[in-house]
Design a protein that fits this description.
The chain has about 180 residues and is α+β, with helices and mostly antiparallel strands. It has a domain of about 120 residues: Chitinase A, domain 3 (Roll), CATH 3.10.50.40. About 30% of the residues lie in helices and about 20% in strands. Strands 1, 2, 3, 4, 5, 6, 7 and 8 form an eight-stranded antiparallel β-sheet that branches.
Length: about 180
């Protein structure tokens, strides 16, 4: 009788121990609404900035603005119609640029930025995405003024003590030289 009771207890313990471990549940769960709200807020900011930039463009009858497929607008201050060479992946370009607000007030001057050297799409240089993309639309010797919404410029971070958050900017870029890489 004692043996039967022992075997029944042993069998019960074996069956009970075969249960797989259960995952612990989080104490707090997030529904992902922060990301959704952030995306909606950013869309609203972009639409407001786009509308503002389009009003500036409509008032400016002296320049022919081009809308970029990358989400910004630009016009040529100095255009080269004879050359077809544009910067390509890995090319080293030398250029100067400034940053102004859309009213024309200088935030970062060309002198402050100095002559820049940039390896196209392969450098971790501290350039805003709008300038990196805009350079690829230029030819050597050209000067172009770009109008960037904040997400193509300094976005949420701005520039400490110079530019607030989510401010669209304009930048005049002069492409001085293009050095072809050996890979091209």
């Amino acid at each position: 009788m004692l043996h039967k009771l022992f075997y029944i207890l042993l069998f019960s313990a074996l069956i009970g121990s075969c249960k797989s471990p259960e995952a612990r549940r989080p104490l707090q769960s997030h529904s992902g609404t922060f990301i959704k709200e952030s995306a909606e807020r950013n869309k609203k900011i972009y639409e407001e900035e786009k509308s503002y930039i389009e009003k500036i463009i409509a008032k400016d009858s002296t320049h022919d603005y081009i809308s970029s497929e990358n989400g910004f607008w630009y016009f040529y201050n100095q255009r080269d119609t004879t050359t077809t060479e544009m910067p390509d992946l890995g090319d080293v370009v030398k250029f100067t640029y400034d940053i102004k607000d859309l009213n024309g007030s200088v935030i970062l001057s060309e002198k402050e930025n100095g002559l820049q050297q940039y390896k196209v799409d392969q450098s971790n240089q501290e350039l805003i995405s709008g300038v990196r993309e805009g350079i690829k639309l230029m030819k050597e010797g050209e000067t172009v003024t770009f109008l960037f919404p904040s997400y193509k410029a300094f976005g949420y971070y701005g520039i400490e003590e110079k530019l607030g958050t989510n401010i669209p900017v304009q930048s005049t870029v002069t492409l001085h030289s293009i050095e072809q890489s050996n890979e091209n």
